[in-house]
# Entry
Amino acid sequence: MNQNKSIFMYGKNEVKKGVFFSLDALIALIIILITMIIVYPNIENFKSENRVHSDITNVLSNLKIGETNNTFVKNLIYENKISDLNKSVLEQIGEFYVENITLAKDLASSVLSDIESKENFGLWYGNTPIFLKNLSSFENAKNVRVDKQIISGIKEGSSVKGYSGRAFLSSDFQTKYFYFGGYSGDGNISIKIDYFGDLEDVKMEIAVNKDFDIYINDLFSGHYTNSSSQFIPAKYDLNAYRTNFHSGENILKISEKDLFIAGGYIKISYSNVSAFNDVKRYYFPGVEGIINIYDGFYIPGNLNEMNILLHYNSNYSVFLNIGNVTVFNESSAGIGETSRYLNNTELSSKLNYSSMTKKTIPLRIGLNELKSVGEKGNADVIIITDISGSMEYRLNSDSIGIARNCSDPQLYDSSTKRISIAKCLDKMVVDIILNVSGNRVGLSAFYGDNSYPYKGRVYEEGLTNNSQYLKSKIDQYVPQDGTPICAAINDAYKILSEQSNPNRTKFVIVMSDGIPTHTCASSGCEGTRTGLQSDEALWLGYGAGCYGGSDDCNVNDCNCASQNANWSSCRLHNGLNATVYSVGFGPVSSCNMANKTLKNIANCGNGKYYSSDNATLLEDFYRLISYEILELSYSEQISKASSGLFTKIYPDSYIEFNYTSEQRPYGLLVSLEKKFSDKYSGTFDVPSDSRIANAKVVSYSGPRWTKEIKINNVTFYNLSLYGRNYKELGDPYNIAIPESLIQNLNNITLITGISPENSSEGSENNKIIYTLVKNFSSYSSIQAHASGCSWEIEFEDNTNYTLKIPKNYSGQSLCYYKEGKQEIGDENDAINIAVLNLFRSLDSDSNGKIDIKINEQNLGVNSYEIVGVPYSWSTKVEIRTWD
# Structure
């Protein structure tokens, strides 16, 4: 019973399932029949129409042109306009399409015009109609049918032949640098420049203290202005006097009394076929005046032998220190011009050659009589600080700021009170100046009474070398009311006249954030009131309407107060020979009266004026002023001590070293320059397909010494290893980077200082100058043309140049490689593509400026015709029908 029930149930289920499938099939069949009834006429119609365009395509692509029974085709073959009889008709029309479109249309017409069709049809190559047979226009078509074919090696406007281009730099174009030391002085400075070949370009970059004349091989070669700072070199183009140079040895002289150069170089580019040569000599800069050179030299291998030639003239003892060793100390008194040769036996007994291998060695040459000059400071400095009521404001606006101490990480935020930043910068100046023993600093802070008659007062501290005491007094500054600038300047005059003497150098730093509101004269605008008790400055508010607000910026209500501040600065400079600097603190530059006052103070005080509402820049200004004070103090000591002295060292003096050279890589030499990112660091890259021939860091250390340099956190130069007294040591301007430490990606850090204990930033104008060895050539892919272009290019020094590539190019196409614009006129030109690729390889930072100077003579191009290879371009061919 159970079994039958089971069988029955199974059969019941199977029958039910079968009925369901039959219903599905029936529904599907009905749908198909309906679809066929509705759609079938259109499908048949489509198939019928499709035969026209597909059949034409098939015939034209399979029929060889040589098999065509067509009179027009036979004539073309006879005239040698068709040479390859195995091309299909479609390919032959395509060849004519790119070479002679009229001929292409004629051929298509002769082949297709006899086709009998009631349909509109046409032949297109790319977007160009070659043949049309139509009853109605294609533009008004409602339905379009297309059959497509791709023909390789054909492109509109292109050749059916292919070309590959190559661009390369020739090896006869060289760049060479001639370096000055970290300090070369004092007097006329000369340098020996040698090359063999044709000079193409001459540039000079130096930090120099005075305007000067240049003489090239005793020929006058222009007058030039000084650099704005010892940390900011000026750049000079000497190409106007390039003909004054000649192949071989040249002497370039920079001429002016008491001149010094605080680092720099002369860079030449010239044509010459020669391999890379290791440097075997260091040449001293020539000096006519006071021999005073801080420099260095590098030995790139294991030192085996050293010899020195000193060609000089001095009635005073000349010393030469290499590292921390005095290798020479003699006088030519009574002899006149003389040459002293130090041989290897003498030098090897004093120097440890093994410790000099692959290192930059500091070098110092000078006069014994001046050796102690500058070792002890003689600067007296007065720091004048504005502590008027507005110093409570934010740095960048006239609203109350936030008080912060010097260790606060947000100290330099624009929301900080001006007085907070001023206190910290004052204390920084104290530390820098008093870090040199013998220097002294005094303080004068000005403010106004907060009740009538609102007298102008100063807080005074006399000259001292006690930095902790001075900084504790600075911390006590509290802003209050008016701005009696003249009183503080007169107070500085009083302090210096009473506590200094004519043999000391004197400096005053005047800082203010606003318009002067007081006069120091009982009548008129020229008075000597000091702001001290019973000698207070007089407020000009009620009488003249001078309140010091923004409404006084563009009127003359405070003009008398401004004139008195200027007069007091003139008096300070003229009467005591003091140099007066001024600093605008906050948005001073937007206020005409405040800006004018501070600028006039600096001008009459023979100093410099700086202004900013950016705390970081203000710190830079204070540091710059501080170190300039140290340098000017030192220079004045040299000037006083050397009054009446005249000595000379000739630029043919040298140090010659014989060392074991390493094998140099072979290839084209290209010298590159990479400016530092900031005052402490810079980066440079070495491409994987290049090798380093040499690399140097150049340092504008100003009055300081280049103290320590690292590459990728590894120290390779440390001046303190040679001694604690930096005055005895040299200061190299260019410091070589050992090649073994250089990687593909490199980071350089540099610090300066005036002693082992002191560290400071360098200059943003520091650079890495390095020479790569590389095969500089580039190729194009296969292209349709190889004609060339007229190029406009921009170099890294921002100069521009136009050149034709190849040299005999006479076309109108323009190409560009400039900042913001790198493009070629014809993107299918093999030469243009190869040149563009070459320029990209010469643009190490991809800024659109080529790193090295090039011209038609040292840039070569080749092109090669390519036959029998697949082409890299193609054209779409279409047969279209429409209604």
Summary: Confidence is low (pLDDT under 50) at residues 1-50, 867-872. The chain is about 25% helix and 35% strand. Residues 173-301+661-772 form one domain. The first strand starts at residue 120 and ends at 125.
